[in-house]
Amino acid sequence: MGRNRMECETMVWSWAFWRRAEPTDKAFGSGRGAYAEPRRLEEWEAHLADAGVSDEWTPRLARRLEDLHRELGSGSAQPLIRAAAAAVDVQAEVRASVERNMRDVTEVERLLGAFSGELEKLDEVLEVLAAYAQRMRNKPAKKPRHILH
Fold first, then answer.
1. How deeply is 49 buried, as exposed, middle or buried, from its count of CB atoms within 10 A (0-12, 13-18, 19+)?
2. pLDDT band at residue 141 under the 50/70/90 scheme
3. Helix, strand or coil for residue 20?
């Protein structure tokens, strides 16, 4: 047990916060052994996959994280991987929200198209009624009938 860290089976106590122990904590060495930082691109991809990053994102992120790790130095791999996994999760939520919004926009466009069609029909009916009213107005008045006996 570390000086600032106590562990039990499901919770990890750190002086900074309580959090639920994740299966990925074993990969990152949560007090159970030393964390081996990735050295090759394939190791970065494996760590990202273990952190829950999709196959679509692991190759792209692995290259960038490898470069950042060189820049930031030893000990930065674990936070980089966790941050990348969190960013991918947030991006997935945003993507789902955008897709929902696009479906809503498509539905509104469909409804407006249908409404426009109905307005065109109404316009045609009003034109027919206007022509009828015009004929009724221009119709000569009938002469009064005189009854002859």
1. middle
2. low
3. strand
- 19 CA to centre of own chain: 26
146 is a domain residue = no
CA distance 102 to 36: 43
Lowest mean pLDDT among 43-47, 76-80, 94-98, 145-149: 145-149
Are 30 and 40 in the same domain?
Answer: no
**b/e string for 63-87 if b means 16 or more Cβ within 10 A?**
eebbeebeeeeeebbbebbeebbee
Cα–Cα distance measured from residue 40 to residue 23, given in angstroms and rounded to the nearest whole number: 23
Shared-domain flag, residues 71 and 110: yes
How many independent structural domains does the chain possess?
2
Please write the tens of the pLDDT for every residue from 64-122: 998 888 888 888 889 999 999 999 999 999 999 999 999 999 999 999 999 999 999 99
Look up the domain containing 27 and give its range. Answer: 1-34
